Here is the input.
Amino acid sequence: MDSLIKFFFCLSLFLFISLIFGEINGVEGSNQNHHLYGFRPTKLFVFGDSYADTGNIRKSLSNSWKFPYGITFPGKPAGRFSDGRVATDFLAKFVGIKSPIPYFWKDYAGKKRLLHGMNFAYGGTGVFNTQVPLPNMTTQIDFFQKILTAGDIYSTSDLISSVALVSVAGNDYSTFIAQNRPASEFPGFIKQVVDQTEVNLRRLHALGVKKIAVPSLQPLGCLPGITVASSFQRCNESQNALVKLHNSLLQQAVAKLNNETKQSTFIILDLYNAFLTVFKNKGANPGSTTFQNPLKPCCVGVSSEYRCGSVDEKGVKKYVICDDPKSAFFWDRSHPTEAGWRSVYSVLRETLTSSLIKA
Here is the structure.
């Protein structure tokens, strides 16, 4: 209840902040008149959180290494926050390369495997430091720069055919709420997050990455951890209004960066509306899977104190799982299933085709 009060209070500041920082829907994320013609990525570098992590987070810190995570792919827990593939995997498949090796496992992979790129994303992280003691966005880019400087895996010329996925922000806001900071600071904090994201994007481009895909923030008010309050029937629109502010400021930042580069170097992937499209269409085209109740997760704890994958001290599982993960959009309280991600990327296909790959 306290969190809801905070969000409703923040809405009173929403219009004021909008007037300061720009109209909510007035700025496009990229300039569609400029493209890198002939560009086809051969390497994917990933920075972000659990929506993009494919195995960086330590086993001791996450249920993503516990059953039933990974039951669809690769058939066992492997550090992905889903029953199977996540955003990174689908973007890699779209551009026609193998999903990049997680940074944590780079020393165990052959050089040939590393040529597809590298994934620096860690579940639980943010643009700034979050509740989990893991590398934030700046530190992830530090890792990347250190590898480039060493020159034994990638050279500057290798980045000519590179694309980056930069997927992060939700954990910053959940951490803000958990810290019980004044609600009046929320809109200003959103601007801080986006401003730092802009710094990070500018830095990646300066390092030589040619294309940078930036997902907008997903509708946080539609995550099962929130919609459980309505028995998974309704999204929390007050939370989604704040997400719209984040996304509006992100669009403006990306438009400014593209104006500076004179090309659509930076691409907004409209994750917010892609999620809502799948929810509203219940999987109808675009999207190919029918989700009867898209807000209801497949895997949940038996009570609020437990999460998907939790077991008690005797090893007895304290979660329940749906009969078919392919029938659910959400896997757990926060993350889509593989089927959910597939539907989202089906919606995003047109944007990816027109903006990311030019024959």
